[in-house]
Amino acid sequence: MIRQGVRRLSTVSNALLLREWIQPASQATKLADLKFETLAITESLSGNSTGGNSGVGADGVLNVRLHRPTKLNAFDMQMWNELETLFDAIEHTPEVRAVVIRGEGRGFSSGMDLNVFASMQEVMMSIPCEARKREALLSVIARFQKIISAPEKCRVPVIAAVHGSCIGGAVDFITACDIRLCDTSAEFSVKEIDLAIVADIGTLQRLPNLVGEQQAKELAYTGRSFFGAEAEKIGLVLKTHVDAPTLFNQATTLAKTIASKSPLTVRGVKKVVQYQRDHSTEDSLAQVQLWNSAMLYSNDLAAAMTAIATKKPPQFEN
Ligand SMILES: CC/C=C\C=C\CC(=O)SCCNC(=O)CCNC(=O)[C@H](O)C(C)(C)COP(=O)(O)OP(=O)(O)OC[C@H]1O[C@@H](n2cnc3c(N)ncnc32)[C@H](O)[C@@H]1OP(=O)(O)O
């Protein structure tokens, strides 16, 4: 009797834990339960925000703001940690179908908080062994890279809506997003060269794919500022809008459109497009064969067919 009871208890908890792996809903990482200081989750993308966290809207769009407006949304350690937590929580919140991210106040972000560089040096200097010091620095750079890569790894599309300054680490961040939109006030700079740093958290890896190697090198060698119109011309952003309200409106419309599509299919498109970037056409065609032979016959296909036949919008599960 006792052994049977033990077996049943462990079967139940195994199933529970497995279900969390498949569709995680752990309270600790649910978006609505998180409190952020340097990020704000807002009902809409427009208007000013005083912060707060209202969770994801019924439309499946998560509106995120970098929220240190008095410091031009520079990434301090709190913000790095919160971005990591945010993207982890998005994976654990199935209702999120698309993410839009913007900056609060005067711009998107002025990149790494310069105080972090000073703190990094202080922490590294406190490690007496040269090898361990370098090992520690390597692991710190790897952690920054992981956080910057989070939008690319995210299971849903992430749209960056850039107004005002977008400097250094902020360029690293937006190049890992699926789609970048901006307004005419957007001012970009691959600023690391002016700090005598080889940009090391993503820009030099992703920017050449977006704008071409020669153009990426010119921007990274000079650190010069360039504005929305040029960013669109060279292919860094998809579109430059006339002003910030229009930008936020258009970003929201795009996110809502994406969120209305089959989430399973959107996830597939993201994976397939990402795979083709890093593989040959032949390998990528083979990958999509596998994807669709596994995923084509979904409830979403049936819902889409019914929607076409009945001329009613389809309803998809997350
Ligand atoms: C392992 C490495 C990992 C990551 C590496 C990332 C690399 C980078 O991100 S390099 C780029 C670093 N960023 C910068 O160099 C930008 C510095 N800021 C500026 O040059 C200017 O602030 C500006 C963006 C040109 C805007 O100028 P302005 O409009 O005149 O505003 P300010 O008065 O200068 O700024 C308002 C307020 O914000 C503070 N602030 C702005 N940016 C930063 C920042 N990056 N770090 C820390 N603080 C910043 C600025 O000091 C002001 O604060 P006050 O308290 O009001 O003085």
UniProtKB/TrEMBL annotation:
<protein>
    <submittedName>
        <fullName>Delta(3,5)-Delta(2,4)-dienoyl-CoA isomerase</fullName>
    </submittedName>
</protein>
<dbReference type="InterPro" id="IPR018376">
    <property type="entry name" value="Enoyl-CoA_hyd/isom_CS"/>
</dbReference>
<keyword id="KW-0007">Acetylation</keyword>
<keyword id="KW-0413">Isomerase</keyword>
<dbReference type="InterPro" id="IPR029045">
    <property type="entry name" value="ClpP/crotonase-like_dom_sf"/>
</dbReference>
<keyword id="KW-0576">Peroxisome</keyword>
<dbReference type="Pfam" id="PF00378">
    <property type="entry name" value="ECH_1"/>
</dbReference>
<dbReference type="InterPro" id="IPR045002">
    <property type="entry name" value="Ech1-like"/>
</dbReference>
<dbReference type="GO" id="GO:0006635">
    <property type="term" value="P:fatty acid beta-oxidation"/>
</dbReference>
<keyword id="KW-0443">Lipid metabolism</keyword>
<dbReference type="GO" id="GO:0005777">
    <property type="term" value="C:peroxisome"/>
</dbReference>
<dbReference type="InterPro" id="IPR001753">
    <property type="entry name" value="Enoyl-CoA_hydra/iso"/>
</dbReference>
<keyword id="KW-0276">Fatty acid metabolism</keyword>
<dbReference type="GO" id="GO:0051750">
    <property type="term" value="F:delta(3,5)-delta(2,4)-dienoyl-CoA isomerase activity"/>
</dbReference>
<dbReference type="InterPro" id="IPR014748">
    <property type="entry name" value="Enoyl-CoA_hydra_C"/>
</dbReference>
<comment type="similarity">
    <text>Belongs to the enoyl-CoA hydratase/isomerase family.</text>
</comment>
<comment type="pathway">
    <text>Lipid metabolism; fatty acid beta-oxidation.</text>
</comment>
